Amino acid sequence: MQIDPTFRAYVDHLDLNALTQSEDVVYVVDEQMNLKAYNPAWETFALNNNGASVLEKYPLGKSITAAFPEKIRTHYVNGYSQALKTGDRFDQDYECSSPNQYRLFHQIAYPLPAGRGLVITNHLVVTGEINRMKYAFGPKYRNADGFVVQCCHCRTVKNQADPERWDWVPSLVEHPDIKTLHSVCANCLDQYFPDLI
Ligand SMILES: [Zn+2]
Q: What is the mean pLDDT of the chain?
């Protein structure tokens, strides 16, 4: 478990051994939502899913709020703020499928005592087959500036020829394009963020 030494006192009461060994991605943020600790599963998940750049972009001390695309940022920031203020946990489902497997995760943000921060766990709750048409990558998935717009959750990509459409392009899940922007698709917004519609 990587822990910012200045924050250690606030997490010392946790079962750090269990968090270190957990297969769930677990990270800890302070009350300003700066990353203060994360477990090995976070590193593994980052390396397997988005490449090492995630680890470089989000070292200890960095605010995690920029990691959420603008469309859903307020949803998470409000949820986390509420949890810090009230001491009640924040729950959120989201899809994060791999190239060959549908995966649904459940996130829980548990407040630390005295609103010092949040322990955020991400548990894989459902796996299954991907029931989506598969598409090959092509020019229609790049916008006018040459970027691929990918849903940060289900990882479908926006079809620029038909902006209402988000397609499943497995090759882009396996190897994200170097010019990728993250957003949220209409389906994920509908299913997981009804408060934002
Ligand atoms: Zn989506």
A: 93
